[in-house]
Give the backbone structure.
Amino acid sequence: MAIRELDDVEFKSTLTRSMRKLAIGDIPPVRLDLRDDVAAAVAAKNISLPPAELTIAHVYVSDGDKHTHVSFYFGRPNTYLVIIVDNIAARVLGFHLLDIGKLYGLD
């Protein structure tokens, strides 16, 4: 299975000013099985951790429930593999490696 990597512009276009963080037990607008998408993204980026060992760190939903961002931690500080779900089409839009350290100069 192939998954498309979103560049910075595409990724930012899925963000809204106010993203709602889901708590443990909250149900996202669209529920999808992301295992194959995570595995494909891990393979595409040569992440050394097996997909089954990635942990969900955060889930955010955009205003209007258009997109859901599922952030997986994979052992690299301040870096997340984000799977972006298009809730309108009920499908995975793609993935993005979000390096917060690089973005905000934390490294």
Residues 8-104 form one domain. The two ends are 33 Å apart (CA to CA). The chain has one domain: 8-104. The CA atoms of residues 16 and 36 lie 27 Å apart.
